[in-house]
Amino acid sequence: MSSANMSDAPPSPDTIVSIRNVSKRFPGGVTAVDDISFDIAQNEFFALLGPSGCGKTTLLRMISGLETPTSGQILIDGQDMSLTPPNKRPTNMVFQSYAVFPHMTVADNVAYGLRVTGVAEDETKRRVGEALEMVKLSHLAQRKPDQMSGGQRQRVALARALVKRPKVLLLDEPLSALDAKLRDDMRMELTRLQETVGITFIIVTHDQDEALSMATRIAVMDKGAVQQIATPAELYEHPKSRFVADFIGKVNLIEGRVVSKKPNAVVLDVPSIGKMEMATKDLVGETAAIAVRPEKLKITKSEPKDAKLVKVKVAIRDVAYYGDTSDVVASLPDGQDLYVTVQNESREGGSGVERGDKVWMSWEPKDSLLLTE
Amino acid sequence: MEDWKTNRNVFWTLATPGTLWLIAFFLVPLAFLFVLSFSSKAMIDGQISINQYDYFSGLTNYLRSFNPDIVSIFIRTLWWSALATLACLIIAYPIAFGICFAPDRWRPLLLMLIVLPFWINLLIRTYALMAVLRDNGLVNSALGAVGLGPLPLMNNTFGVIFGLVYVYMPFMVLPLYATIERLDKSFLEASLDLGGTQFQTFRNITLPLTMPGIVTGVVLVFIPCLGTFLTSELLGGTSSWMIGNVIQSQFGPANDWPFGSALSLLLMYATFAVLAVRAFLSRNSKGVDV
Q1: pLDDT per 10-residue tile (average), chain A, 373 residues
Q2: Taking CB atoms and an 8 Å cutoff, what residues of chain A touch B189?
Q3: How many CB pairs under 8 A join A and B?
């Protein structure tokens, strides 16, 4: 999927945001966003996910117009936004710090965007009332922001953006400043809101759980580039690269050397396990990694009978008990640590293993994945 | 933090040299001025004494203060101080903004340039200003070279206000810089994002949120302007006296300390009035600390 090809194609009719070969270089030589191209469809809940410094916030700010691309184009609803300032764009942003104006009441905050654009006062009143209703803050309309909790201020910021009826709502790390309990509530609230108002949400987050649980599609970013765009399930089960596999959930990466190539498969020599054949359609270089999720690994006291399974003798190095599950760290013969999630099915005994135990670890070949990138 | 409610020992910190200094050299002389303002010069052998006083001789000095000449000088002082403060604000605001948005490594240098004039004695700076403003000074020589001028730049109202603005500008720039620097830029971005123009953003967001700095700067410039005598003396000449010049002459050439004391205290009360207005504004500020 080369970016040059994508940008020449006409956007499909349901595309709302089209990002075409967009780059952002800051003075001083930092390239925050490096030639990114992709489309976001109408009504998507789209997440930009990546570690800090990957360029996700810069990309969001370029969509809002608060940052200008060094090169490339951003189209919103088919219109080139290159020369459109933020106050003329059909986007609204919920800032990470919420940026609720401290010298105005909640109602005045929400009304601000309507008043400055000359919406009639009676319509403003009605729409502010509706917006506050939507975020369940009607009873606090006359409060000042400094008398409100973080979660309430966030709702003000949401209402203030939604009351403008933007085509795209941009959310910059909306949950990062909330405590754990509120975060879960707000996550569901955002999903509900997005379904109610039916506008496209683009959310920036570094939290994979947040992205997986809310988004319909996720772009995983690293070092200013998009690594993969896919649905949450596809990202988790079919990551394209070691980076994506590692960033989305926990993963065990076991590196191996390619000894022979067949059509649609390769044979790998993995130090601790031996020769393994893995199906792949990708071009494979000299090395590749086998990726297995911790919950796909099984631990047994005796050697499993099933000949299909990949099995290896391991030493338990650590066990962490979490109630419903335990995280077990097991060492391969060559010293690499693998992470295993064990369901604590019976009340007695927990994971059934202890530090220092020598046990068998196994997985089904179809539950593992060959990663070449 | 410890306070006097939980730890009475903090009162001992008041018994420090600083406190004694303030009592000896500020409160005592002030009390002396207060007493003197109700006094008059003693009559000895039918002659007015030079250095003997009749204490507690009534409100004469205060009544004299309301003589029309003094009142008009007082009003002129208020008016010129207000003009100079306004000019400072209008000039300093963009400067403070510029410094805040300057690249990080430039900021300390720019701030130092603002403070730099403090390193030079006020008298010398004012004489230097005279060299710039006088009829054959730098500005008028330059204008003369291109066949213009000379413009009357000093010995008039313009000269005094120009001098005041020049002298007190740093007192306006620094508090403005401090507030603008602390201002969360995402408020401005949010306003733009919500459809506000640059001007609407300035009027509705930047201005109210930087009001604390504006009020502090106004107070810091306006109050010393009220007491100015050097700038008005040197750049304004005798027809441009401010109340500070009158007071100075009472303690100097006119040798009428009681009258000078009364005028000083009246000026101090005017200053208190300014501070009271500030306190009032601060109490009515909407969630913004002034």
Answers
A1: 45 82 89 91 92 91 93 92 91 93 94 93 94 90 90 91 93 85 85 88 91 91 91 89 87 83 80 78 77 87 82 85 85 85 76 80 85 80
A2: 66, 86, 93, 95, 99
A3: 73
Token pair in block for residue A231: 């649905």
pLDDT 10s digits, A308-332: 888 888 888 888 888 888 888 888 8
Q: Which helix (H) or strand (E) holds B85?
A: helix B68-100
Distance between CA atoms of A154 and A178, rounded to whole angstroms? 9
> Could you report the per-residue pLDDT of A252-301, keeping only the tens digit for each?
888 888 877 777 778 888 887 777 778 777 767 778 888 888 888 888 88
The dihedral built from the CA positions of residue B221, B224, B225 and B228, taken in this order, carries a sign that is negative
Which distant-in-sequence residues (6+ apart) come within 8 Å of A224 by Cβ?
A24, A31, A32, A33, A34, A36, A54, A55
Note which residues in 51-80 of chain A have CB less than 8 A from chain B: 64-66
Residue A35: exposed, middle, or buried by beta-carbon count in 10 A (0-12, 13-18, 19+)? middle
B289 to chain A, closest Cα gap in Å: 10
> Shortest CB distance from A116 goes to which of B196, B208, B287?
B196
Q: Is the CA virtual torsion B218, B224, B228, B230 positive or negative?
A: negative
Question: What is the nearest CA distance from A27 to chain B, expressed in angstroms?
Answer: 11
Closest chain B residue to A116, measured at CA? B196
Q: How far is A93 from chain B (nearest CA, A)?
A: 7
Say how far residue A98 (Cα) sits from the centre of its chain: 20
Residue A279 and residue A263 in contact, taking contact as beta carbons nearer than 8 Å: no
**Which B positions 165-204 lie with beta carbon below 8 A of chain A?**
184, 186-187, 189-197, 200, 204
Distance (Å, whole) CA A141 – CA A219: 37
Contact A300, A345 (CB under 8 A): no
Kindly list the residues from chain A whose CB atom is less than 8 angstroms away from the CB atom of residue B194: 87, 92, 112-113, 116, 160-161, 164
User: Is A280:A370 a contact under the CB 8 Å cutoff?
Assistant: yes
Q: Could you give phi then psi for residue A280, rounded to 5 degrees? A: -160, 145
Instruction: Enter the pTM of the model.
Output: 0.80
Whole-complex ipTM: 0.81
Tokens of A370: 């060959």
- Determine whether the interchain pair B194/A87 forms a contact, defined as Cβ–Cβ distance below 8 Å: yes
Ramachandran class of A109: left when φ > 0, alpha when ψ lies in -120 to 50, beta otherwise? alpha
